[in-house]
Specification:
By secondary structure, the protein is α+β, with helices and mostly antiparallel strands. It has a 5-stranded mixed sheet with strand order 1-2-8-5-3, covered by helices on one side. Strands 4-11 form a two-stranded antiparallel sheet. A two-stranded antiparallel sheet has the order 6-7. It is globular, with a radius of gyration of 22 Å. The protein folds into 2 domains: 63 residues, no CATH class; 372 residues, Orthogonal Bundle (Cytochrome p450), CATH 1.10.630.10. It starts with a helix and ends with a strand. Helix content is 49%, strand content 8%. Strand 9 and strand 10 form a beta hairpin. It binds protoporphyrin IX containing FE. The site of protoporphyrin IX containing FE (HEM) has 30 residues, from helix 6, helix 13, helix 14 and helix 18.
Length: 436
């Protein structure tokens, strides 16, 4: 739905409207209709992103107060300059949390001190090294048999549903569960079932990156507090295996030699447990959806060496699950000739940057043989670049190949229509993939 408030807005009318792409005050500009949470943008963001790149590459969005940066080279520039573009706002709630919601969080002891994505302090490199140890490429390569075993187990269940009912939702029964189960094995997470972890993780995404109404915010805050309290109890309990992720956090030392405090250890887990599964489940769903939509692709990815990996890469470029990321300026600066004040909240449009024709010719075509196939920014860049990239890529390729081999005869269910979409500030993916 197009928000009436935005309909009336003409860029350039306020203090924020300077530089290229900003309209003349009072002029009706279609970019004024942009609603980052609205159905038209979530369903088909590409025409909007094309316009942003070509007409307003640094655009102030009055509804969120964010400065949208959409050209590939500008997005890279922002991500590669962490001294000017700080990560401090990466996990802030995009929709202001009313007092009633803040009270629920405060009563539950919820806090997210700087840990990983939101940490621009000297404690970041050490914490990042700890995370990277669990997810570096060699460790992921060793985990392939585990990922395949989990994928095959889930596909058995999918097949039995298909046999008994004739259809199955691959999002719920396969794509979402696979990364959660893999993460639990790799990090040694015990004492919680995957469905609960998924519910907590999805609630956290919606509360901090969504635009829920108050009643929903309250429900979500309760789930987020449950998640946080479970993590706090697990970290405090001291019973985690020494080789588990939480065991490693307990042994971690800060640059000044102190052990990690509980709140920061919980903050690290909170981010990794969410980032490590929701995003990859979203990626797998889009990867499967687009492969099923091209009838020749499904049998080919089952057999052709390297094709599943290349297909995943093209989806990451064109339709990544993490669509945007935030930074805040440490001081006044300029991007593409547009002046940003100190404290400007910047939103890098990762999804749009993968369709920048300056970098990717014919960006709308999914082209597994593309020369610069890995030049996308789906995993960010620089100091905070996603340390889970190797795991995410591998899981998605294994999932695609296993599904294409194990379910050769499936197709999107006739009459299923367009799936409902997750449309948060930074996360976009189908919420169903019904096949028959
Ligand atoms: C398709 C799946 C994934 C996508 C698209 C994705 C994307 C991203 C992006 C865009 C960032 C911010 C980068 C920046 O600020 O420059 C990020 C950070 C991060 N991601 Fe991922 N991610 C995915 C999967 C994973 C997985 C599987 C894990 C862990 C197992 C993970 C862990 C992290 C962590 C810990 C950070 C913060 C790193 C830091 O601040 O140093 N992500 N990810």
């Amino acid at each position: 739905m197009i928000s009436p408030a935005l309909d009336a807005w003409a860029p350039g009318g306020g203090a924020a409207g300077h530089g290229p792409g900003h309209g003349i005050p009072g002029t009706r500009d279609p970019l004024g209709l942009l609603d980052l949470f609205g159905d038209p943008f979530v369903r088909d963001p590409y025409p909007w992103l094309d316009r942003l790149r070509s007409e307003a590459p640094v655009h102030h969005d009055p509804a969120t107060g964010l400065w949208l940066v959409s050209r590939h080279q500008d997005v890279r520039h922002v991500l590669l300059d962490p001294d000017v573009f700080l990560p401090d706002n990466a996990q802030h709630s995009v929709t202001p949390l009313p007092v009633a919601v803040l009270r629920v969080l405060a009563r539950g002891g919820f806090a997210l001190p700087p840990a990983l994505a939101n940490n621009g302090t000297p404690t970041h490199p050490g914490l990042r090294r700890l995370v990277t140890r669990f997810f570096h490429a060699n460790r992921v390569a060793d985990a392939v048999p585990v990922i395949e075993r989990i994928a095959d187990g889930l596909l058995d269940e999918v097949r039995s549903q298909l046999d008994s009912t004739g259809h199955c939702d691959l999002f719920t029964w396969f794509a979402q569960l696979l990364p959660c189960k893999v993460l639990m094995e790799l990090l040694g997470i015990r004492g919680v079932d995957p469905a609960t972890l998924i519910r907590w993780s999805d609630a956290s995404l919606e509360l901090f990156w969504g635009r829920p109404p108050l009643a929903r915010q309250l429900e979500l805050a309760k789930l987020v507090v449950e998640f946080h309290q479970w993590l706090t109890d697990t970290v405090r309990g001291g019973t985690a295996a020494p080789d588990s992720f939480i065991g490693a956090l307990a042994r971690h030392r800060l640059p000044d030699g102190r052990p990690l405090d509980v709140a920061t250890a919980v903050g690290v887990c909170f981010f990794v447990f969410i980032a490590g599964q929701s995003t990859t489940g979203q990626l797998i769903t889009t990867v499967l959806r687009r492969a099923l939509a091209e009838s020749a692709m499904w049998p080919r990815v089952a057999g052709e060496a390297g094709l599943a990996e290349a297909w995943v890469e093209e989806i990451l470029r064109r339709e990544p699950p993490v669509t945007t990321w935030r930074r805040v300026t440490a001081r006044a600066t300029e991007v593409s000739g547009v002046r940003l004040p100190a404290g400007a909240q910047v939103l890098v449009m990762l999804l749009g940057s993968g369709s920048d024709p300056e970098v990717f010719p014919s960006p709308e075509r999914l082209c597994p043989r593309r020369e610069n196939i890995r030049h996308h920014l789906a995993f960010g860049a620089g100091r905070h670049r996603c340390p889970g990239a190797s795991l995410a890529r591998t899981e998605a390729a294994v999932a695609l190949r296993a599904a294409a081999r194990g379910l050769p005869g499936i197709r999107p269910a006739v009459g299923a229509g367009e799936p409902p979409m997750l449309g948060l500030l930074s996360f976009r993916a189908p919420l169903a993939l019904v096949v028959e």
